[in-house]
Write a structure and sequence with these properties.
The protein is of the alpha+beta class. It is built from nine helices and 22 strands.
Length: 466
Amino acid sequence: MMAATAAVRVRAGTRRAPALCRMPWLPLMLVAAAAASEQQVPLVLWSSDRGLWAPAADTHEGHITSDMQLSTYLDPALELGPRNVLLFLQDKLSIEDFTAYGGVFGNKQDSAFSNLENALDLAPSSLVLPAVDWYAISTLTTYLQEKLGASPLHVDLATLRELKLNASIPALLLIRLPYTASSGLMAPKEVLTGNDEVIGQVLSTLKSEDIPYTAGLTAVRPSRVARDVAMVTGGLGRQLLQRTVAPPAISAPVSYNDTAPRILFWAQNFSVAYGEHWEDLTSRTFGVQDLNLTGSSWNDSIARLALTYDSLFGTMVTFKFTLANRFYPVSARHWFTLENLEIHSNGSVAYFNASQVTGPSIYSFHCEHVSSENEDGNLLVPDTQPSLWQMTFRDFQIQAFNVTGEQFSYASDCAGFFSPGIWMGLLTSLFMLFIFTYGLHMILSLKTMDRFDDHKGPTIALTQIV
């Protein structure tokens, strides 16, 4: 909806700052609307000054801006921006209202927020926070009063026209948008359109007087509440046959560190067989603090991860993953390959070729099944056939180069582009195309007679028509 607005979503923190401790609010226009089921509201800011907010970094859905995080956005603006701050306070608003009634699909003439959208498009600085913690909004007025050193002044449009604002003297103006108390008698779009007209008139007044300002729109509570049973603590009545299902616990990956994390390895299931006896090593490998990684090493070209188990099949067994990092001029980038996987036990070594486990070095490698069994893709090929050892990894992921922190990079997946269904469709289409081409060729090859019998003349003799 708001083309020139940078959307920012920040995960909610656990600390609370009294009166929004530090919130920079100079050149910003703030539109906050309640948008979640537990008292979160969106917040939009814009200002007549530029350069108050840096472009948002990585953001994703579901983040909630806390009071401490909100203060980091507002503090610089209040210290460097205009001294006149306007806060438009609406009774109810949610981020879904902008989707439902705004011009997000190109219907600008049908938008209920035309003045607000225009203000954000023209504002040198703007910021949109789709979900802000309700506590931060509830203390916003007190925070602004402390930062500006000015008491809030409740004004309407007529009062604003009589005021003489000074750019050097701080002023905090609270504008309660109309049509909220009796909004139950009006359609939501009519309410929002009326409020938008008030915003447009106020901004036109400030523009005519050439007064720099920071403005904000927020709401007391959300207009739409997502009913999520898992988030509601009571009041919805009994839910028949409702059972709370705990999410499956995910263990931390194996991490080899020297001066920093170097190798990461994880699998949802890690099973090994010797002869006909299978052992599940998942619980003994992932999330274990004292896992034996003796023998592991790392440099820019070769990485080795060694996992040692003291009592496996009655003896000590070590699994060694050897990964190589090479530069290929054709692709002009480094690629890593799992050269082999070794199993050391009782002085003997079993080798598995795993060269199909490969990818760009800046990525990790992920595959749903990495196994020495044919039915699971056979990515691990034993050097000797038949082999007493069998290995199976489910949801396998590994990274040994360009590791940052304890999290995997983007994964290069082993899944091929052509699935069996795609192959079946292509072959069927090609077969039908062949039939169509052959039939068309036969039709075009038909030849008609160019001589006909005349009953008044001599009988013609027809030879073979070619």
